[in-house]
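Holo prediction. Input below; ligand is adenosine monophosphate.
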Amino acid sequence: MTYSIPKGVYDILPEDLSGKELWKESRRWQALKTLLRSSAETYGFEEISTPVFETTALFQRTIGENTDIVSKEMYIFEDKAGRSMTLRPEGTACVMRSFIENHYQQRAYAHKLFYIGPMFRYERRQAGRYRQFYQFGAEAIGQAAPEQDAEMIDFLYTLCARIGVKNLQIRLNSIGDADCRRLFKQALVDYLAPFKKELSEESQKRLETNPLRVLDSKNPKDREITEGAPSILSFLQSEAREHFEAVKNYLETLKIPFVIDRRLVRGLDYYNRTVFEIVCEDGASRDSLGGGGRYDHLLECLGGPNLPAVGWAVGLERILQALLAQNHRFSKKRGPFLFLIPLGEESTAYAFSLLKKLRLNDISCEMDYSGKKLKQILQYAHRRDAIFVSVIGDLELKERTLKIKEMASGKEISVPANEAEKHFLSLKQCYDHLP
Ligand code: AMP
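Structure of the complex:
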């Protein structure tokens, strides 16, 4: 009996042996997560982690019954007490649930939170779509001003740029407030009704359940039909229009490249006013890297305080894949700093205690105890990208010296054994500064 990974998910591994899916290598994930966390700190965001499962009702209430996520994609299970639980398909609802439950409105009048973690959606299998994928998301709660939208879009753009993704562009739209949206929805339905039979099956359904989503259909015929559809922007009432104008002006001030995309409506029900996505203009990623928008009524709809909010999420797989498609140079893989090869029992005991001392000084080192031939051990050390190797035989023990060889250059030096720690510490400092 052999076991294989479920469909639509993947392993993150120390090395991708196929050489074709380098984005799955763990060091790239670690580097990305480090950058994400430090950028979040620069923008004043604090980390929040919520469980990977919540009650099903939370997502039904927030994301909306007629969305693809709720109607088709959730991983729902019953726990042993018969309660319906769902593996979280997105992070915002969870953050809002936690915000309310922990009375966070008492903490300050404005809050900036971020999360990194796996999300789960039973998506149709296609390139770049996984059933477990990682999102980094940011939520700014408490500020209704357009400055907050601009700051969030700036954060999203700057973060992706700082990571090294090139040719970025923000796509921007406003879906107005509930009143504008109601009028627009009606106008859209009226416009689409005569074309109903020509629309794709999916869009025909959406026309009934969630007409705004017909606008972001990828089907060419649907797109041809919606080309002439009314624009939501002409339905914006004065406050929503002023808000949108202000957001655009700030983005221009911040020199963030953006285009207005009147088809952009986003999949989830809870958005209002500003919605946005970030894409690579050169098509390095088939779909958007991330997106979000304003959701001023979400907290209240969950029984929380009446506080406005704006947030977004990016997909980590997409970012790594876009970087690779753009030939981004990741930092080199680093193996152990030192690989000790003792020959014989006495040397092994000595190497073991040296290993311990060096590790306590934060020097990454390893030791061989395979009993294999020296040539094979050296090949292994090379494969592991060790920077230095040191073979400890009877002579080295007797003379109380260590012979240290730099793998890349083959250069060898001798160090008195009682100075080995000091020596390695200063060597490590030089190497820590290398890219
Ligand atoms: P959404 O929560 O649908 O607005 O998605 C935000 C971002 O998460 C997208 O732009 C993608 O980068 C990523 N994402 C969403 N769904 C998936 C998926 N099934 N597989 C991989 N990434 C995804």
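The CA atoms of residues 19 and 58 lie 41 Å apart. That is the main takeaway for now.
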